[in-house]
Design goal:
- This protein is 32% helix and 27% strand.
- Strand 6 (56-59) and strand 7 (63-66) form a beta hairpin.
- The strands form 6 sheets. The chain has a 30-stranded mixed beta sheet that branches.
- Helix 6 crosses helix 11 (575-601).
- With 665 residues, the chain is of the alpha/beta class.
- It is built from 13 helices and 45 strands.
- Among the domains are: 1-110, no CATH class; 407-427 and 461-572, no CATH class; 575-663.
- The radius of gyration is 30 Å and the shape is elongated.
């Protein structure tokens, strides 16, 4: 009641003169400084609070309109200072409208009953029958959703998290909605039971029902023309535009969905993009991108995905309902018209080409090609390690982080080489070496699971995996050594290289962007199950701790791999052992970079110039190509590869020099 007073008789008279009505003028309170000069043609009912209307509102094109209320029906609302509300065809009901809000040319904006504004909404992710159903909430991260969806075998965890979410949802429940300050809602049809954060931009939507738009000044949310969204949460910095249709969806930070994209019972986490196509019951981890009208993503988990045109999967090979689903691990690309029959599991950074009907599981063969050949699935292990496209992706992802909100929900590790991927390479190399000991089949191929591998691909895969393993070891070792940069003795080096913790040993997992030791995940789950962790905020805080501890944990894991590689304990390692490994590291870096250089050069061959120089001879074709694409030597990625070779060679030599000085000290 502070700063509010009853409306006066003279003010009522002025409002009535401007064709305003009210069922009970005694229910209207006004702020000190209020004048009725800018209110006309408006009907009030229920309890009303009105602010002051002193400022002009700026519009594009240099237009100004004075704040105020006209041609509207307002029921049980608080209207803040300097709002502009006009031409509301039906009514605005049960909202707290904060300062500097614009609402124009809308049909209906109302809270119809007590609602949690999308919090606690069930989403049948992955399994359309509801077997992996989870509950969404405002601050949900990809990692907490991962727990809900994929740890159903831990019922105490699921029960505890669901109770936390339902308690949170109950606290968010209200009969009154919020339209945050500086929000603009224009030319919209029906909006019911929706909360809007500050600086929301809502233009021309067809329907918004039961949801939260978690906009703020640092990261506004835009919802554009023709959008229909039911039972949803949209996180800060996202854009939902161009006739997109959402049903039972969570949209994470910095996402863009548009161009008539359609999604049902799906989750999209940080920096996802969806245009033209369709999603059904998907878990789209960070940087899942699909841009094509003919692309369907269904019943799968993805992250760092680039889906080609016509890519789709099928969960319809069933008799008991659409229960099958699949996992496509981080960094995978699908080519045009690729197809995978679920269930299947595709290893990290795989290129999927063609159609695959035999439920492949390539978990232990990361960075591979999965290719269709005469209705068979052929695997080309490790070959994506030499693809310049893979490196380009790794470079672009951090640059395409659209999140402007200082409070990030998802903790994203962009590293290509990590204990998560290197452990797979170690497994893959061992598998290939075991296969190599057996004679190939009559057609000269090796069989692994439901895939076939040629002899040449097998041999090359072993070499590429070994090269990448050495590169990772060298990266970790040099980073560790140069973090101190001076040692008094060999014993000093050994003591420094010994891990300060055993956290990081064993298997690692990718919690949809967050790469961390499995043992630490088990510790977190145990704390939740035992009630040591009491809230969703504490769970997210633990995820932050895991993310920030990555390099500490990574060194523990790398140190164990180093001991296996050198076949001696850290307490026995010599300067020569370390220097030799770093020399091998330099060779590995150079070898992989040279392969990338050769791969990049393919983009500048004569065949790549086809279609250039349309009306000229060969020289014109070359000139036209260089004007459009640039020259090979000046390509940014090519120059970066060459500079990378030089930088890493110098770094290796500097580290070796430091070690050798210590060895003679």
């Amino acid at each position: 009641m502070q700063n509010y007073r009853n409306i006066t008789e003279s003010e009522i008279s002025k409002l009535q003169a401007e064709k305003c009505k009210c069922t009970n003028w005694g229910n209207i309170l006004v702020k000190e400084g209020f004048t009725p000069d800018f209110i006309e043609g408006t009907t009030f009912s229920g309890k009303i609070k009105l602010g002051v209307f002193k400022k002009n509102i700026q519009y594009p094109g240099g237009i100004e309109k004075h704040s105020g209320i006209s041609n509207a029906f307002i029921h049980n609302c608080t209207i803040g200072d300097d709002c502009l509300i006009s031409n509301v065809k039906n009514y605005i009901a049960n909202y707290e409208v904060e300062d500097n809000v614009v609402i124009e040319n809308c049909e209906l904006i109302s809270v119809e009953e007590e609602t949690s504004f999308g919090n606690g909404t069930p989403v049948n992710v992955m399994d359309e029958t509801g077997g992996r159903q989870l509950l969404i909430y405002d601050q949900m991260s990809a990692h907490s959703a991962y727990f809900q969806a994929f740890y159903k075998h831990r019922p105490r965890l699921i029960q505890t998290m669901e109770k936390m979410i339902l308690d949170y949802s109950k606290n968010k429940s209200s009969n009154t909605g919020r339209i945050g300050s500086h929000t603009r809602i224009s030319n919209c049809k029906q909006i019911t039971n929706v909360n809007f954060g500050s600086y929301s931009s809502i233009m021309g939507v067809s329907r918004l029902k039961n949801g939260s738009v978690n906009s703020n000044q640092a990261a506004p949310v835009t919802i554009g023309p023709g959008v229909i969204a039911d039972d949803f949460i949209i996180s800060s910095g996202s854009e939902i535009i161009d006739g997109t249709i959402l049903n039972n969806c969570f949209i994470g930070q910095g996402c863009i969905l548009g161009k008539h994209y359609s999604a049902a019972h799906s989750l999209f986490f940080s920096n996802c993009q969806g245009f033209h196509g369709e999603a059904c019951s998907i878990f789209a981890g960070p940087y899942t991108v699909t841009h094509h009208k003919s692309t369907l993503l269904i019943a799968g988990m993805f992250s760092f995905l680039n889906a080609g045109s016509g890519s789709n999967q099928s969960n319809h090979m069933y008799k008991l309902g659409p229960i099958h689903h699949g996992i496509i691990e981080r960094g995978t690309k699908t080519t045009s018209d690729s197809y995978i029959l679920w269930p299947a599991k595709i290893g990290p950074f795989t290129l999927v080409m063609g159609r695959h009907y035999k439920n492949p599981d390539t978990t232990d063969m990361p960075f591979s090609y999965l290719i269709e050949n005469k209705d068979e699935s052929w695997l080309v292990p490790a070959v994506n390690l030499r693809s310049v496209g893979t490196i380009r992706d790794a470079m672009k992802w951090p640059k395409r982080d659209n999140r402007k909100d200082p409070e990030k929900h998802d903790f994203i590790n962009h590293n290509l080489l990590s204990p998560y991927t290197i452990a797979r390479m170690v497994n893959g190399k061992n598998i290939l070496e075991e296969l190599q000991k057996t004679p190939p089949g009559s057609s000269g191929k090796y069989s692994w699971g439901t895939t076939s591998i040629s002899k040449k691909s097998l041999e090359r895969g072993i070499d590429l995996y070994q090269t990448a393993i050495v590169k990772f070891l060298g990266n970790s070792l040099i980073s560790k050594l140069l973090s101190r940069n001076h040692f008094s003795s060999v014993e000093d080096i050994r003591n420094y290289l010994k891990p300060g913790t055993n956290k990081g040993e064993g298997d690692w997992v990718d919690l949809s962007g967050l790469i961390t030791p499995k043992s630490e995940v088990e510790e977190l789950i145990s704390r939740i199950e035992k009630g040591v962790i009491h809230s969703l905020k504490e769970i997210e805080g633990y995820f932050r701790y895991l993310h920030e501890s990555y390099y500490t944990f990574e060194w523990t894991w790398a140190a164990r791999l180093l001991e296996k590689h050198l076949k001696k304990s850290i307490g026995e390692i010599t300067v020569e052992d370390l220097s030799s490994l770093i020399r091998d590291w330099v060779k590995s870096v150079v070898q992989l970079d040279e392969l990338l250089y050769v791969d990049a050069k393919k983009e500048f061959t004569l065949s790549a110039m086809t279609g250039f120089g349309i009306d000229g001879d060969h020289e014109v074709k070359k000139q036209d190509f260089e004007k459009v694409r640039g020259s090979f030597e000046k390509n940014i990625l090519v120059t970066e590869i060459l500079n990378h070779i030089q930088r890493k060679t110098k770094l290796g030599n500097r580290t070796i020099e430091m070690l050798e000085k210590t060895g003679t000290a």
